[in-house]
Structure formats: C-alpha cells, structure tokens
Design a protein that fits this description.
By secondary structure, the chain is α/β, with parallel strands linked by helices. It has a single domain, classed as Ribonucleoside hydrolase-like (Inosine-uridine Nucleoside N-ribohydrolase, Chain A). It has an 8-stranded mixed sheet, sandwiched between helices. The radius of gyration is 20 Å and the shape is globular. It holds the Pfam family IU_nuc_hydro. This is Inosine-uridine nucleoside N-ribohydrolase.
Length: 340
C-alpha cells in the first residue's frame, strides 16, 4: 500500500513539474532567475543575434537587466550606416514588442564607433549601466555580460571603473581558434570577425584586466549549425516570432544569392551559445556541464588581432565543444510553448 501511494506521489510530482516548465516558457514564474544578464549584440548585423535574443527572453532562469545594441565594423555589409548601434537597439525593441513582453529593463544603444585606442573608453548610457549593475549590493545573483559581437562597451566600462572586473563574468562569442585545440576553417579571415569589430577593446579586456572570461572562439561557435529544413519545420510555423526570425534569414539568403554566394542549406546561429552557457546550466552544481572547455592562460591580443603567448595571463575558459542538441531543442520547445 505504501509503495502504491509513493508511486502515485511520484506521478503527481512529475505532472506538476512538467506543467511548471510549460508555464514558465509561456511567461509564468515558477522557475526563478538564478543569474542576471546584460545582453550586448549587433542586432542590425547577422540575424543570429535576433535568434539568440528571442531564446534568452523565453528563458525564465535568467533575469535580463538590459539589452545593448552594439556597432559593427565600419562599412560592414550587414549595415553600412553610421548609426549601427542605434539600428541594433531598434531591432531589439521590435523583437521584444513582437513577443508581447512587458519589460522592466532598458533597451539602449551603445557607441556607434569603436574605441580610438586601448586606453581611451567611449562614453555611453550603456557603459554607465554596466558599471552600475556590476556595483549593485542589493542582490546575490551573479552577473553575466553576454557579448555576441565587439567588446566596446565592456572594455570602456572596465577602463572607466576597473573595480568591476571581479564583479561579473564575460561570455564572449569571438576570437580565432587556439591552434592546440582546433585548426581554422578553409579560407578563414584574419582577424576573426567579432574581434575585428573593435581590436582595441579586445586588447583592453584580454591584456589589461583580470575579468573572468568564458570565450567561444570561431571553431566552437561554428558548431551551432542549424539546417534550413529545421528552420522551416521547427521555427517558422510557430507564431509571428518564428516567422519573423526565419523571414529575416531568408531575406539574407536571397541577398547572398544576388551576390553570387551559395551558402548551402545550413546556417550558423553562432550567438545562441550565449544562452546555452547561461540559461541552460545544470540543475545542481550549476555550470554548463554538457559543454566542454579548456583552461588557457589569457593570450595577449596584438594590434593586428592575433594571439600572442602571455605567461602572466590569468586562466580563462575556452569552449571547444558545445551541446548543440540541448541548445536547439530547448529553443524549439520554448517557441512552441509560447504559441500554444
């Protein structure tokens, strides 16, 4: 009798747990935040940033404190305007509005230009916000700054107030391969794309601070391959958000075709690991336990945007294998639950 009662209790507990997960993805709050995040990305550039933002906003274990639209390199083909950061912030606002979210956090533009050198910070509302959030003493939730592009705002905040370096963790999509871990792809670019957006800022973060870094270099973020077939089946049919995300990507595919570029039938959603390494950490002994990293001495970034050995560098995490299945199945499920 006791065994039967215990079995029924377990069934009830499982039903409640499943229902709670569904409610959270639909906007409920039975899963509580266990970290604060500031999102800093070039949303007017590669559409992968918009996929990452939608996924993060559907993740109840993170408390989004701000969204920062950041600049691209001057003349970038995704957005060759002089208001790239402003445009990025506007793209983020449009997505948040489309998702029907009532937000208590600001959406702001960072600097529209890179740092002039590695000792002169830019000034912006975004830089000031990062500093204020890092210095908060009224919460015990750890702070992560998630960067899917350049490091202008983070570097400027560190130069403006160096004491914030031990009060946050940077999760950064960017940088070339570490040759002892992986080889670069064919016809690779130097410097790596995100590093090249603001080399001076990367030099500040890597060379001049003790900031904890979780780096997802090019060989790792290129693992985030999603086939077009899955976009059509798992994303586009699920509400106006799913349709919008795939439409933006299809518009890019059409543009590439006009320029004679054949990108095949997959797309690298290279910014989505920002969600994987934060919102999808393990239940106990919280960490991105299903992905793998190596501890490396932080290299020195040269003025040319390459690595140089630094025997005095602090240890940083360099991710070399990502749990892509967990990342994408969670995204698909949250999109579906949002539209039920």
């Amino acid at each position: 009798m006791l065994k039967k009662g215990y079995f029924m209790f377990l069934l009830l507990l499982m039903a409640v747990s499943v229902r709670a997960i569904g409610q959270n993805a639909s906007g409920q709050t039975s899963i509580m935040p266990r970290m604060r995040v500031i999102v800093d990305n070039d949303f007017s550039g590669d559409p992968d940033g918009l996929f990452q933002l939608a996924h993060l906003l559907l993740s109840p274990s993170v408390e989004v404190r701000a969204i920062i639209g950041s600049h691209l390199r001057v003349g970038d083909g995704f957005d060759n305007s002089t208001t790239q950061a402003d445009n990025a912030a506007q793209k983020a606002r449009e997505l948040v509005q489309m998702m029907g979210l009532k937000t208590a956090f600001p959406i702001m533009a960072g600097s529209n230009t890179a740092m002039p050198n590695d000792s002169t910070p830019v000034k912006s509302e975004a830089v000031a916000f990062i500093i204020r959030e890092a210095l908060r003493t009224d919460t015990k939730l750890p702070l992560y700054v998630l960067c899917g592009a350049g490091l202008t705002e983070v570097a400027s905040a560190l130069l403006t107030n160096p004491q914030i370096a031990n009060k946050l963790t940077l999760v950064w999509i960017g940088g070339p391969e570490y040759t002892d871990l992986a080889l670069p792809p064919p016809n690779y670019s130097t410097p790596e794309y995100n590093l090249n957006i603001d080399i001076a800022a990367a030099r500040v973060v890597f060379n001049r601070t003790t900031l904890p870094i979780w780096q997802i270099p090019r060989n790792a973020y290129r693992q985030a391959l999603l086939p077009y077939s899955q976009l059509l089946v798992k994303v586009k049919p699920h509400g106006k958000v799913g349709k919008y995300l795939v439409d933006v990507l299809e518009q890019l595919m059409a543009r590439m075709k006009q320029y004679g570029l054949n990108i095949g039938e997959t797309y690298v959603l290279g910014d989505s690991p920002l969600v994987l390494l934060t919102a999808l950490q393990s239940s106990f002994e919280a960490d991105p336990s299903s992905s793998e990293y190596a501890l490396r001495l932080s290299p020195r970034i040269t003025p040319q945007g390459t690595y140089e050995y630094n025997h005095a560098g602090r240890l940083i995490r360099v991710y070399n294998r990502l749990d892509i299945q967990l990342m994408f199945t969670d995204f698909f499920a949250k999109l579906e639950l949002m539209n039920r």
